[in-house]
Queue: 4 jobs
Job 1
Amino acid sequence: QTVVQGIILLPLRAICIVFILLLAWLSASIATCCQPGRGFLPLKGWRRRMIQTTLSGLTRVAYLVMGFQVKVKGKVASQLEAPIFVAAPHSSFFDAIICALTGMPSIVSRAENLSTPVFGTILSSLQPVAVSRQDPDSRKNTVAEITRRALSRGQWPQVI
């Protein structure tokens, strides 16, 4: 019985995940289309709200489709209370749960990740702090950018 359920559920879940991923890509593309100051200025207004609501909701639905239910205990710190949010160790796809639950903050990511198809567009919409492995000054530049965003008094989203 469980083998039959797996044979039926696995393709259905995979199709749902692909559909959710394409919706996330579409939302990210719309929100960042013709964006002034791309990457240098924070998203504002409807663009930021669209990223926060649609990507957060789609991420939660994707994890629910995969069979994960996440409950938050306590209160998530606001952007003004904690401009930098630390999540460690960050080495799995479960990191997206933290992003969804905290309102899709900016993340620190490898610069190479921004050029991947579909995922790169979604990642770019989060306005990440890009770390380049080829640049010898990358660590210093990353720390400076995180500091600049943290001291922006809420203009930039939280950095995770």
Job 2
Amino acid sequence: DAKKLVRSPSGLRMVPEHRAARSPFGLDEPPWVPDKECPRCMQCDTKFDFITRKHHCRRCGKCFCDKCCSKKVPLPRMCFVDPVRQCAECALVSQKETEFYDKQLKVLMNGATFFVTLGTSDKSELMVCRLSNNQRYLVLDGDSHCEIEIIQISTVQILTEGFTPGGGNTRAIGMILQYKVPGSEEVMQMKFTAGEDFSCNKKLSASWLAAMHKATKLLYESRDQ
């Protein structure tokens, strides 16, 4: 869809004017601490001067010396694909998120097959579930077609099996998803269950659900910003 681009607060990139057109997993750039309010490094307290220059972390916006803000890693949640300067704490978080963008996001877009049950119905439909290329919709295709806007999803519960009292690995076998119907306060529920037959690859379904679990965490964090 057409979307107008505007310059971000840092002036370093262009972003869609309206947040609704952006990825639901994205974060807004933080306001930068003004130079005049930061005479010392906010990490090691070193005083800034002509030799010790100040740098802003692209993720938190705080002011640091070069030593405390020397990490340069991608920040995909703010659309910085190339490595940008970040403090050590933020760089660690961004590195973990980069794994989601490099791996889990591709899994979600490739999709997996589930039996989908709407509400309290006792009937289910075999559907391929995937994340749209613009990351804004969960697309379900079977005998019918359905699209759920990601920002309308209110809760996601991953269903697992394999837990034993003595400990052990669990395996994701499905999920329960609740979402709001656009234009109303009505909340709908869908249940996704990995198929037992050979045509439904259990390993692929489990990987897709694990990726969805990580995506949900990022979604909630974006909303809390």
Job 3
Amino acid sequence: MAPAEQDALAAREQLFHERVRECIICALLFASLYILCHFIITHFKKHTDFTAVHDDEDAAVNRIALGLCTFTLAVALGAVLLLPFSIISNEVLLSFPQNYYIQWLNGSLIHGLWNLVFLFSNLSLVFLMPFAYFFTESEGFAGSKKGIMARVYETSVVLLLLTLLVLGMVWVASAIVGNDAASRQSLYDLWEYYLPYLYSCISLFGVLLLLLCTPFGLSTMFTVTGKLLVKPRLLEDLDEQLSCTRLEEAAVSRRI
């Protein structure tokens, strides 16, 4: 084998090992986030009677919806922690550039995590969360055999109709605003244009909602904290308290 072919083979083998390592790290990170989110949701969710019945259809639907919501929360938590993780990994690499055991914190791993978070965010936003909501509300089509698959069919049909409705409304709005052939044809470019645009719009709405709800949350937090904590008595007048106590004692003695 020629030296050039050996170098190419070694480069492909190294690239393969890097991809496998990145897949393992991503799987471990997501599994940790999924377990954490599962404990968070099961801690705060309301108790229902059918969750205790493992063979019931409603319990199975509830478990499937719980899994989808846990997956979505794990993706959202990963999206929130991705920027701090990128900053910390960059600082660690700059501090220890020659350390062999932290070389896996490279740009390829961060780029892969960004791509996975973007993919799963769109998937959760467009399909998983609407499917979980419609799945819990579904009962199967009239006249069909009852069961989980009947609910899955109904949920899929409702989600498909909702998707067609949203796409139709977007197409009509794009045609009205643009009023040219390019604006109508741009709807076919769904993955490259509309999904990132939808993701950006919903992210902007979430930030605005956070800015709106943060003052109310802080005021509520300080109110609850003020009720739970004991106020300090450093500035109280002890002489006034003693005089009030003597007056109360005298009033009780007169009554006796």
Job 4
Amino acid sequence: SGNYYNQGEVRKKELEQSCSLLGIPASDVTLIDHRELPDDPAVEWDTQLLATFVLKHIAAKNINLVVTFDAGGVSGHANHISLYTALSLEGWALSRTVYPLSPGCHVLLLQSVNLFRKYISILDLPISYLLPGDVLFILTEEETEQAKRAMRCHSSQLLWFRHIYLLFSRYMVINSLQLL
């Protein structure tokens, strides 16, 4: 629920505001508030518990596409890496007997890049284009501005380095994804 630094209630409202700006209705936002899944960049979450939550949600909403982090978690954040682990084939295998993967559901992994590439914004396009990947997603200028406005809704998390991220990160413009 985003309760790092005891800001859970503030972060829930920020998420709702951000999703609304992106056209995502509140009814499509699911928050998980579980003591074994704390919002903490140093804590690895329980793979089976997390996989069960995610698979249950996929089954309940008949979801056919999941986008998540790769093994690097884009920023090395332990919670992000835990999502990859839970959604990898090993994690799903633990929970699939209870919540089988919806037929036709695909998983795309957002590829982590090194620090140099992460902060060269649109200049990373030729590199991303030449490297192997299943999907190369490039935002228009309008989409990039919308994404930045949505990120700014999370004011409790906008520390100095996230302002740099908003200005220079390739992820605000370019996203390389790999099928799991």
